[in-house]
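Support request from a user on the community tier.

User writes: "When I paste my structure tokens into the form, the page sometimes reloads and wipes my input. The last time it worked, I copied everything first. Here is what I submitted, just in case something in the input itself triggers the reload:"
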């Protein structure tokens, strides 16, 4: 499987897409094509690692990591991800519990997977890979935990000063010497702009061997699609219905992973994006104009994103707003 930038550059291998994080032309990597599955292709796959092995197998074709895929998945999914039924009369509603990882963030799945991949591809202590991370709250802690003390890996976390909780700030700054956390005077979007700018500087990027563990890295999204595949298959087998999902979204990576699973043929019904007062996506669906803006600070700080990066992938894969709003719903929720 080869990977191309949303802006045209490529092709590169999966291994290089993981290493680079972002394409040389500033775009985001996507596979040249998505595999298509029938539901019965997953018969007998009763665990997330088993579902993930079938789902992700085509993405790893001809990768140097292909022989390691089973071990990578066992390492990634070392904690449970149950879908717990909620006591709502007259409705079949479940909560997909993505908070059982080491930092209690759903991003533990993608960060753990990416660390497991890159530590197998790299690991030279004399020439380490530098993982640049912008965080609005929980990404940095998950990435730091995943890469902590891994040989040949160093992490630089940029987070907006005063815009993460006290507990999150502690979680960002408690790791070993290979993790450096830096407060930025600004918003998450400023942090993200610094990361993208550094990675777009070819000389700087080559000197420090930059990569990314934000959801701009395709290695974050591939494993996230697997828990949507697994939970939708379980619901479909139990009820015969395709479940819908309501997905809180900041940088849009988690929701894109769900859409990607649906595009691959998994039995997924309606997908609703839930945002806070940062209405960039909601306004795009209403006006058909993509107008990123400075993020607003809310109670849900991890979702305070005014220019969600993965909209570029979503528009490339599915279409512009007139198409997207036919396939996705959106609700913007205020602090009140």
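"...and here is what came back when it finally went through:"
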């Amino acid at each position: 499987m080869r990977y191309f930038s949303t802006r045209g550059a490529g092709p590169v291998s999966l291994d290089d897409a993981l290493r680079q994080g972002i394409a040389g032309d500033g775009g985001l990597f996507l596979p040249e094509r998505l595999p298509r599955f029938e539901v019965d292709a997953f018969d007998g796959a009763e665990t997330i690692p088993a579902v993930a092995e079938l789902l992700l197998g085509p993405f790893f074709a001809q990768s140097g990591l292909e022989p390691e895929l089973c071990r990578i998945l066992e390492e990634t999914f070392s904690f449970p991800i149950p879908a717990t039924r909620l006591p709502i009369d007259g409705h079949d509603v479940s909560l997909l519990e993505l908070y059982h990882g080491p930092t209690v963030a759903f991003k533990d799945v993608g960060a753990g997977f990416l660390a497991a991949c890159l530590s197998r591809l790299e690991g030279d202590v004399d020439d380490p890979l530098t993982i640049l991370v912008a965080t609005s709250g929980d990404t940095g802690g998950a990435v730091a935990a995943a890469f902590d003390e891994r040989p040949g890996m160093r992490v630089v976390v940029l987070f907006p000063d005063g815009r993460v909780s006290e507990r999150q700030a502690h979680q960002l700054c408690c790791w070993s010497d290979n993790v450096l956390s830096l407060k930025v005077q600004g918003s998450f979007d400023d942090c993200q702009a610094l990361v993208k700018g550094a990675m777009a500087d070819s000389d700087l990027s080559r000197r420090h061997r930059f990569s990314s563990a934000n959801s701009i890295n395709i290695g974050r999204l591939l494993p996230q699609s697997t828990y949507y595949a697994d939970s939708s298959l379980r619901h479909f087998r139990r009820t015969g219905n395709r479940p819908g999902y309501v997905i809180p979204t900041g940088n849009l990576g988690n929701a894109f992973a769900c859409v990607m699973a649906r595009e691959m043929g998994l039995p997924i019904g309606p997908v609703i994006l839930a945002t806070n007062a940062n209405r960039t996506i909601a306004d795009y669906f209403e006006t058909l104009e993509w107008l990123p803006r400075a993020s607003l600070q809310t109670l849900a700080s991890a979702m305070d994103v005014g220019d969600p990066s993965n909209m570029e992938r979503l528009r490339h894969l599915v279409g512009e707003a007139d198409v997207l709003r036919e396939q996705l719903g959106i609700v913007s929720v205020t602090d009140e």
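Agent notes: The reload is a front-end session timeout and is unrelated to the input. Residues 215 and 253 are 5 Å apart (CA to CA). The longest strand covers residues 153-160. Escalated to web team.
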